Amino acid sequence: MQNKFKLILLAFLFAGFTGFTQQIQMPQASPSAKIAQQVGLTQVTVDYSRPSTKGRKIFGELVPYGEVWRTGANSATIFNFSTEVMIDGKKVPAGSYALYSIPGKSVWTMVLSKNTQLWGSIGYSASDDLLRWTVPASKTSKKYETFEISFNKLTDNSADVSLKWEQTRVDFTLTTEVDPIVMADIQKQVIDTKTTNPALLYQAASYYFTNNKDLPQAYEWIKASTDSDPKYWTMHLRAKIELAMGLKTDALESANKSKAMAMEAKNPDYVGLNERLVKTIK
Fold it and tell me: Given a cut of 80, is residue 11 above it in pLDDT?
C-alpha cells in the first residue's frame, strides 16, 4: 500500500511538472533586440529588450526619476566592446557591461556595471560600477512608442549612442583608438618592409591623404602603386593627391585615365567622381 501511495504521488508530481514546462508561444511584451556597429576598429554590440509605451506615461511615472533603471526591459541591457573604448574621457576595457541609468527631468546619470548577470536592476549594487557619467536629456519632436537604442554621428573613431523613448532622448559618445594602430600597421607592413605591394601602397597613401599626414610620402606610395598596377580607384586617388600638391597638369591626366578605366569597367560612380574632379582642376 505504501509503495502504491508513493507511485501515485510521483505521478501527480510528474504531471504537475509537465504542466509547468508546457508553454504557449506568444509575442513578447518587450521583444529582444541585438544591434552591432563598427566604430573605428572596434566592434560594438548591444543586447537589449524594447518595451513600448502602450498608453502609459513613462518617465517620472512608470520609470521614476532618481531611481536606477535597467534601460530597457527584462534582463539588463548589455554592451560589448571588442577593444578598449573611451566614454566621458575615461577608459573602458574591452569586454561586456550592463548599462543602467538614473533618469532625471533634464539630466540622466548613466552607469556601466561589471555585473552582467542581473534580471533588470534587481540586485543592482553601486559597488559593481565601472563608470558613471551624466548626460543631458532632451525632448524629441516625434513620439517613440517603443524604446530604441541606435548609433549616430559616426566618424573614423567615434559614434554617438542614442537612447529614445516616449519623447525623451539622451546621447553619449564612444571614442576608439584608431590612428596609433593604423600608423603602427603602416610602419610594419609598408615602411619597414619597403613593400612593393600595390594594394598596401594604395591603402597607406589613402590613409595619409585622408588624415592630412605627409603628402609627399603619400604621393610616392600612390605613384608606385599606380605605376605598377593601375586601377580606376587608385588613379583617382593619385589625381586627388596631385591636385592637393598643386600638380594640376598631372592631376588632370590621372583623372582622365581613371575616368576612362571606370567607363571600361562600367562603374558610373567613379565616372562621376572623376568628372567632378576634372571640373575643379579646370
Answer: no
